[in-house]
Amino acid sequence: ALSRGASSAVFVEWSPPAVTILRENVYKVGLGGRVVATDVFDFLEGEKDHYDLAFVDPPYAMPLASVVEVLERLVDQLKPNAVVVVHRRTGETPPSLSGLALAWEREYGDAQVWRFVKLHEEAMT
After folding, report:
1. Distance between CA 123 and CA 119 in Å, rounded?
2. Can you tell me whether residue 44 is helix, strand or coil?
3. Own/partner long-range contacts of 23-26 (Cβ < 8 Å, ≥24 apart)
4. What residue ranges define each of the domains in the chain, with the CATH number in brackets?
5. Contacts 24+ apart (CB under 8 A), 106-111
6. Do 84 and 74 contact (CB within 8 A), yes or no?
7. Can you say whether residue 8 is alpha, beta or left, with left for phi > 0 and alpha for psi between -120 and 50 degrees?
């Protein structure tokens, strides 16, 4: 996102080896960005910022119910019309979520991508 013009980016990762690589890459690219080494649920619980774009790329082994929980918590941290892109293993059905509308879904080999858009407050009531 930073290389495409985003003014800021936050990378949330709990795996220590992945955090190390993320920090190295953020430094090498030189475009800024904040790497937060924590569980996504802990991050969302304390987060006050609101986002235009979120990439959700959990481990394939994470149950869909847990991914849904992440998305449900994320909704409150999104600006109107924000986009959420979710990367999963093929074979799962995109969930119906309060506050997010499925814009499209695509499959690429053994991966699938879902694109959601945050609904306006009026559309959620």
Report:
1. 6
2. helix
3. none
4. 1-38 (no CATH), 51-125 (3.40.50.150)
5. 111/87
6. yes
7. beta
Tokens of residue 88, six digits:
């999963």
Q: Is the pTM of this model over 0.85?
A: yes
Contact between residue 119 and residue 83 where contact means Cβ atoms under 8 Å apart: no
Task: Please give the full DSSP string across 70-111, using - where no structure is assigned.
Answer: HHHHHGGGEEEEEEEEEEEETTPPPPPBTTEEEEEEEEETTE
**Rounded Cα gap, residues 1 and 66, in angstroms:** 25
Question: Containing H/E element for 24?
Answer: helix 16-29
pLDDT in tens, 71-119: 999 999 999 999 999 999 999 999 999 999 999 999 999 999 999 999 9
- Please tell me the distance from the alpha carbon of residue 120 to that of residue 80, in angstroms, as a whole number: 6
Query: What is the rounded CA–CA span in Å between residue 78 and residue 52?
Result: 6
Query: Are 32 and 9 in contact, with CB atoms under 8 Å apart?
Result: yes
Nearest-angstrom CA–CA distance, 37 and 98: 28
CB 78 within 8 A of CB 84: yes
